[in-house]
Design goal:
Helices cover about 40% and strands about 20% of the residues. It is of the alpha+beta class. It folds into two domains: about 130 residues, D-amino Acid Aminotransferase, Chain A, domain 1 (2-Layer Sandwich), CATH 3.30.470.20; about 40 residues, no CATH class. A hairpin with a 5-residue loop joins strand 2 and strand 3. Helix 4 runs parallel beside helix 6. The longest helix is centred in the C-terminal third of the chain and has 18 residues.
């Protein structure tokens, strides 16, 4: 049995640091982002991410990883505890994450860094990227919005305002639409009974079951 503490705080208290540490433990990249919403609320997958630059998050994450002797690509996630304002560790991922396309499109391609390092080729440090870019998962975020609004934690105006950021799709690529079509079908099957009215659910079920 594993016991963990639930860190109190709002949904937008989650933040992440990404880096790649070379053989000497020196970072070849710095990147931070925030997870503004997730579904299910409180314990779910991120439904809206936003790139930013948070020096405290980067410094804390780097210090932790260097103390542990980590090498290679890693993502460490924190949540700011509303009780004392301190960053508390949530998890570490020694891999690319679901927000990888957001990271890449903002200016840091960790997959390329990993590939070049695996070949023993030099990599120039990557420390600059575009902030204010969002990654939106519409179906999950709509459900998160409804739940947060019902609880009085989010207004419609605030939710819509957050979506004004330039958006990076997680899987859409006009050169290869296969993953997009597959993902869209999965989301429609998953979300139709959570979002759609009963009569629309019946109609969509007839289409999918045909």
């Amino acid at each position: 049995m594993i016991m963990t503490e639930i860190i109190p705080g709002s949904e937008d208290s989650y933040c992440s640091y990404y880096t790649y540490l070379d053989v000497d433990g020196e970072p070849l990249a710095h990147f931070t982002k925030r997870k503004l919403r997730q579904y299910p609320v409180g314990f779910g997958e991120g439904s809206f991410h936003l790139t930013d630059w948070a020096p405290e998050v980067a410094e804390t994450g780097l210090a932790l990883l260097q103390a542990l002797g980590v090498r290679g690509m890693v993502n460490v996630e924190f949540k700011r505890d509303e009780r004392d304002g301190e960053l508390k560790l949530i998890e570490c991922n020694a891999r690319l994450t679901a927000a990888n396309e957001l990271v890449r499109r903002s200016g840091i391609d960790f997959a390329e860094i990993i590939y070049l390092r695996a070949q023993g080729r030099p990599v120039s440090p990557a420390t600059t990227y575009e902030t204010g870019l969002g990654m939106w998962f519409p179906m999950h975020d709509l459900l998160a919005f409804r739940e947060l609004r019902s609880a009085g934690h989010l207004t419609t105006r605030t939710w819509l305002a957050s979506l004004r950021h330039p958006q990076i799709p997680a899987v859409l690529d006009l050169a290869d639409l296969g993953p997009t079509v597959t993902k869209a079908g999965q989301l429609l099957r998953w979300g139709r009974h959570r979002v759609l009215p009963d009569r629309v659910q019946r109609a969509s079920r007839e289409v999918f079951d045909a």
